[in-house]
Amino acid sequence: MNMKHLSNFKMSSGPSSMEIRQAAASDKESVICIHGNVYDGLDYIAEYFDDFLACPLTTPYVAVVQNKIVGFIATFIVDQGKTVITRAGRLSASVGGQGLYKQFQAHVLKMSGTSRHAFTALNTNPAANKETFRAVNKLILSKPLTRFLFDAHVLQSLEESRKKTLNNPSDEDIKHFFSSPAIRKYLFPKERIIVDWVPYRLTEANISLLCWSGKRTKVFSDISVDTDGSVRGLLTFSTIIPVKRPAYNCNFDIYGTDTATLKDHVISHMRYIRVKTIDSTSLLVLVEPDFNIHALEDVFREIGMQRSEWRDSENPDNIYSYQLLFEKEI
Predict the structure, then answer these.
(1) pLDDT band at 160; cut points 50, 70, 90
(2) pLDDT for 18-29, tens place per residue?
(3) What is the C-alpha separation between 271 and 259, in angstroms, rounded?
(4) CA distances from 203 to 81, 82, 171, 179, 187 (A)
(5) What is the DSSP letter of 329?
(6) Which one of 48, 51, 58, 265 has the largest count of C-beta atoms within 10 Å of its C-beta?
(7) 200 and 193 in contact (C-beta within 8 Å)?
(8) Predicted TM-score of the model (pTM)
(9) Rounded CA gap, 22 and 70, in Å?
(10) Is the pLDDT of residue 243 over 80?
């Protein structure tokens, strides 16, 4: 990681100055305490903070006002240095409404040295639905989100043998998926892959980054091409981490729309979750827009898991139901 960069400037809306610098290991607890209820308890900062510091392609920054850490952003460089991803971003409510986050983000994006900013958001994000926001940030794709909330000990019932043995795809397999026109079009119709909420373009250089989360992420595949050129099977990723409420969260990314082996994939990933925990778990399933959601719900119902809508605790009328991917030129 580069030497720490210090930058001080006056806020346009007040007399205090905001200092922006790279985060240090000693900042961890202060960063975790910036916001007490990110994503209604599914905050990943506590689990990923140390990795943000260790990863050579990730740079975590803090914003400091009056000697107190009030903001955090972690940037991640992908697409062979052309795109910067904001892996995490938050600002303390104590300094909200002053335009600080906008200044903070503009500074760290400039520091990235890239030409493009890409980021994921939830459909309930107020800014993401404004015309002024969408005039600057291009919506690339929207993926349906389905949530299953359960106690992982019920997964003890997953002892039935699977009909099909799934592969743990290698980097070479993923490279083939990216390079084969038929497979690429089937799996990634929008020319993007998102794993654990991190978006990537379909370049070979990004393949080693897909499992950035290391042992937290499990991958299965049974992709095949018929003699008539049609593609079958699925490519699936699950990433599980400890959070506040419930005890664990798992992001489950499904690529492809063939549901013939969906149950095999679900059982394989649920077994992986069972190895990690028997505690309460929130499972966020992300699929393509034309995926058969009813088939998905049927499979989970067969193994004793019911869909549970993910609602904003502060505004229960807001239901988290879509993952959005935006990009803009810097």
Answers:
(1) low
(2) 999 999 999 999
(3) 19
(4) 12, 11, 12, 9, 14
(5) E
(6) 265
(7) yes
(8) 0.93
(9) 13
(10) yes
CB 75 within 8 A of CB 88: no
Count how many Cα atoms sit within 13 Å of the Cα of residue 218 in the half-sphere of its side chain.
Answer: 20
User: Looking at 12-21, 113-122, 185-194, 269-278, which range is the least confident one?
Assistant: 12-21
101 has which bridge partners?
none
What is the phi-psi region of residue 179: left when phi exceeds 0, alpha when psi lies from -120 to 50, beta otherwise?
Answer: alpha
CA dist., res. 296 & res. 283, Å (int): 13
- SS3 state of residue 202: coil
Strand partners, 307: 148
**DSSP-derived secondary structure for 224-286:** EE-TTS-EE--EEEEEEEE-SSSSEEEEEEEE----TTHHHHHHHHHHHHHHH-SSEEEEEEE
Tokens of 189: 């119709």
The single residue listed with the structure tokens 């719900």 is: 297
Q: pLDDT for 79-124, tens place per residue?
A: 999 999 999 999 998 888 888 999 999 999 999 999 999 999 999 9
